[in-house]
Write a structure and sequence with these properties.
heterotrimer; A: about 300 residues; mainly alpha; ABC transporter involved in vitamin B12 uptake, BtuC; 11 helices; C: about 240 residues; alpha/beta; Rossmann fold; 2 domains; 6-stranded mixed beta sheet; 4-stranded antiparallel beta sheet; 10 helices; globular
Chain lengths: ~300, ~300, ~240
């Protein structure tokens, strides 16, 4: 399996992991925001991502919409969807303890994946555009074009979300509500309003991640669950409520997986992530980076 | 009130033909579900820790039974195999439970158990000749003689599980669990070593679930990762407990009867939409009936006003 | 301006207020005093809409508000400076103030209000980029009051503002409250520091275990032998 490991191949592995991991990162930001503000573990995030991937796929296949363009449709739609989901599923139980919302998210996930499977068959799908197999050479390494784009999108969305949280009044309200909901309510910030906004951002990010997924690798309806788990692992690494932490956590996970794939056979590599996840949960649940000062 | 149904259940196979009776089959399924459900009820309903990974114990129990039989350590319907399955599951629960439950946040536990289920599934898929890989293990089905031992074992299992829950809840352990569930910090401060009780509930729940898996293994004669580590074994106990009334002794029993019935009906009419329905059902139950059916009845009888949130 | 009429409030099965009735007139400083646990904070929470009474009414400027939510009530012109300040410690002084003007009617005027507030509390302008959690107790109280003022309230409610503050700061605090009142802010003050509270109040109500047991003008009550006897330990 591993013979002499050159610097070149190591860098290649790391870069692949980095690029792949940013997708986990986008998923993780949504989960982290939602959990940080309203203590809801939205375990259906991965399935929402796959939903977006399907929509992007069908738009491409049936209407010839380029996936990049579909972002402009999917993200706003998903943001609206996010607000709606909050109102329908979580508004009632948002402050009823952690268990009801986790179970609702769980049930919703099962419903969604099986619905997608029923509607669109369990076969794997992937978008194949003219540039899908396109590779660029950077610094002597082979870099997949679509994955590079996904990386750029991830960084962009993290910047946008951070900007929102730090500079807009709404974003500050979200931060305030996640620190002290009672005080926020007392000064007139409606809790459910803030939650809807946060949820809509989270799901909007899922939409973005979905398009990136559809462009980058094959997917099937049940992949969402694994995606959610990976997102949670990324959040565990990065610490809850931290936007950059979620992204970095995702990248770290991508790198670990990439290394795992290289040194061990495929399926065991998957297992490695879960094992690391469990270890982190057991030993350092505040996140691996919690020692550093967090901005937002 | 309990004796009568028990007598009826016990007598049933002598009245109807147990081989062809659908009722016997249905009850068999329900009884296994009761055992698994009570397992979750103990850790989720009483101790307040949501486990999303009961399927780990179910599958583990099934595999232990299958492997020990194939390797010749145990035989068909061997109580030793079942006990080993249960104990194996319990040991796993203790091993994973101690670090996971020692943090005061319930979400970490829930997520950890979910990860556990997945890890186990991967392990057993990769296990080579020991576990049969993704195809799984085939047990000698020619030893099957009649439905009766299955029925009675499952009845015994369901009764055992329910009685266990009953006695635990009546004991000091039960009080400690409920205190932990309602306000863990307060319980700790009052001198209750919550970790001990949480792990105890988790491992007893795992034991019961492992027994269920073992029986299922004996019934199906074919153990494979996809079927035995399927998320449905994680989902059903939660759904049935909550729907029937988590944190009560009989609630989960009601939930098991009700939902096994509903699922069987759905299976007959719309087999593909089965999981969609269960998922939707969980959502609906949590939104509209979070206290379970049993409390609905009690409230009407006692005439208390429903608490408004 | 504010009429509280016979409200009865429970937390679940535990009743906290019994038939509480009192009024606050425009432009006055009204105090609600009493020992710990008397229910004073519950009264404020109820007025703000955080809890709803199971019987009784609350009327503000002619509107019935006992069933309304906090954001509607803050919008109408009632602002609460909570017990213990409850600042957003991870946000800056400036951000805390900005959020104070979150409601619909306050937001467009935020800039002007901010100028007004920093006039009253110049030190907040100085420290505006500091994290709220890094301030001293006295400054936090000022920030909390400032945040409350950002909502442009007609009625400002203060819950135990002197709690945990040094005597010199407390003196300054009550001067500020007086100054605010001079600038036409009606004040409802909840305090354990009865002496200081009664000194500046126009009217006062005494609470004991969820009920109002005494009422009168600030000065009168100060001289009242009952009060002196019961709360002597608290008098400076």
């Amino acid at each position: 399996m591993s013979d002499f490991l050159s610097f070149h191949s190591l860098s290649q592995i790391l870069v692949n992991g980095l690029l792949f991991g940013t997708m986990y990162g986008i998923a993780a930001i949504g989960v982290s925001l939602i959990f940080g503000t309203m203590q809801i573990i939205f375990i259906a995030q991965g399935s929402m991502i796959i939903l977006a991937a399907y929509i992007s796929f069908w738009l491409f296949l049936l209407l010839f919409v380029d996936p990049f363009l579909s972002i402009f449709f999917i993200v706003p739609v998903f943001m609206l969807l996010g607000g709606g989901l909050y109102q329908v599923l979580f508004r009632k139980v948002a402050y009823a303890g952690k268990n009801p919302s986790l179970l609702i998210a769980f049930g919703f996930m099962i419903m969604l994946e099986n619905l997608m499977s029923l509607l669109w068959t369990p076969n794997t799908r992937a978008i194949n555009t003219s540039y899908t197999a396109y590779g660029i050479e950077m610094l002597g390494l082979q870099v997949s074009f679509t994955r590079l784009v996904a990386f750029v999108l991830a960084i962009l969305s993290t910047v946008v979300v951070t900007f929102f949280l730090k500079r807009t009044l709404m974003g500050k309200a979200v931060r305030a509500a996640s620190e002290d909901l009672g005080a926020a309510t007392m000064i007139g910030i409606g809790a459910h309003w803030v939650n809807s906004i946060t949820f809509s951002i989270g799901i909007g990010l899922a939409g973005l991640a979905g398009v990136a997924t559809a462009m980058t690798f094959p997917f099937d309806p049940y992949f969402g669950f694994i995606f959610s788990l990976k997102a949670l692992i990324a959040v565990a690494f990065g610490g809850i409520g931290s936007v950059w932490g979620a992204l970095v956590g995702g990248i770290l996970l991508g790198v670990i997986e990439s290394l795992g794939f290289y040194f061990l056979s495929g399926v065991w590599a998957d297992g490695i992530s879960y094992v690391v996840f469990l270890l982190v949960l057991m030993l350092k649940p505040e996140g691996l980076f919690s020692g550093f000062k967090r901005i937002a | 009130m309990i004796i009568l149904p028990m007598v009826l259940f016990a007598g049933l196979p002598f009245i109807v033909d147990s081989e062809s009776s659908y009722l016997v089959f249905f009850l068999f399924l329900t009884f296994i579900n009761i055992a698994i459900v009570q397992g979750w009820n103990l850790v989720g309903g009483y101790a307040g820790q949501i486990s999303l990974g009961q399927h780990a114990f179910f599958g583990l129990g099934a595999y232990i039974t299958a492997i020990t039989w194939l390797r010749g350590f145990t035989g068909y319907f061997d109580p030793l195999a079942m006990i080993l399955s249960g104990i194996g599951a319990a040991i796993l629960a203790i091993g994973v439970g101690i670090p996971l439950l020692s943090k005061l946040r319930g979400d970490y536990f829930a997520l950890g158990t979910l990860g556990l289920g997945e890890i186990l599934r991967i392990i057993f898929t990769q296990g080579g000749t020991l576990t049969g890989g993704s195809v799984g293990l085939l047990l000698p089905s020619r030893v099957y003689e009649s439905m009766k031992p299955y029925y009675f074992t499952s009845l015994g299992l369901a009764a055992f599980a329910t009685l266990t829950i009953y006695y635990i809840t009546k004991s000091r352990i039960g009080k400690a669990l409920i205190a932990t569930r309602d306000d863990e910090l307060a319980a700790e401060v009052s001198g209750i070593y919550t970790l001990k009780y949480k792990v105890l509930a988790f491992s007893v729940g795992a034991f019961l679930t492992g027994l269920g898996g073992s029986l299922q293994a004996y019934y199906l004669f074919h153990i494979h990762p996809a079927g035995f580590f399927s998320l449905k074994w994680a989902l059903y106990p939660i759904l049935m407990s909550i729907m029937g009334g988590a944190g009560t002794v009989l609630g989960p029993v009601i939930g098991a009867f009700f939902l096994t019935g509903v699922f069987e009906l759905i299976n007959i009419w719309l087999p593909e939409s089965h999981p969609i329905f269960s998922g939707g059902l969980i959502v609906a139950v949590m939104l509209f009936l979070p206290n379970g059916l049993i409390r609905l009845r009690l409230k009407r009888i006692i005439g208390k006003k429903e608490e408004r949130r | 301006m504010l009429k509280v009429n016979s409200i009865n409030v429970s937390y679940g099965d535990a009743q906290a207020l019994w038939d509480v009735t009192f009024n606050v007139r425009e432009m006055e400083i009204c105090s609600l005093v009493g020992a710990n646990g008397a229910g004073k904070t519950t009264v404020l929470s109820t007025i703000l809409g955080m809890i709803h009474p199971f019987s009784g009414q609350v009327e503000f400027l002619g509107y019935r508000i006992e069933e309304k939510r906090p954001n509607a009530i803050v919008d109408l012109g009632i602002s609460l400076v909570p017990e213990g300040r409850r600042l957003f410690s991870k946000l800056t002084v400036l951000e805390n103030l900005e959020l104070g003007a979150f409601t619909k009617q306050a937001r467009p005027l935020a800039k002007q209000t901010m100028t007004w507030v920093t006039e009253i509390f110049p030190i907040l302008e100085e420290r505006k980029r500091q994290l709220a959690g890094a301030l001293s107790g006295g400054m936090q109280q000022m920030l909390a009051i400032g945040r409350g003022l950002m909502a442009k309230p007609k009625l400002l409610m203060l819950d135990e503002p002197s709690l945990g503050l040094a005597p010199l700061i407390v003196k300054m605090l009550f001067e500020v409250i007086q100054k605010l009142n001079d600038r036409h802010v009606t004040i409802l003050l909840v305090e354990q520091n009865i002496h200081q509270a009664l000194k500046i109040s126009h009217s006062a109500f005494v609470m004991k275990i969820g009920k109002i047991v005494m009422k009168g003008k600030g000065g009168e009550l100060m001289a009242d032998p009952e009060i002196k006897k019961a709360y002597m330990g608290v008098l400076e």
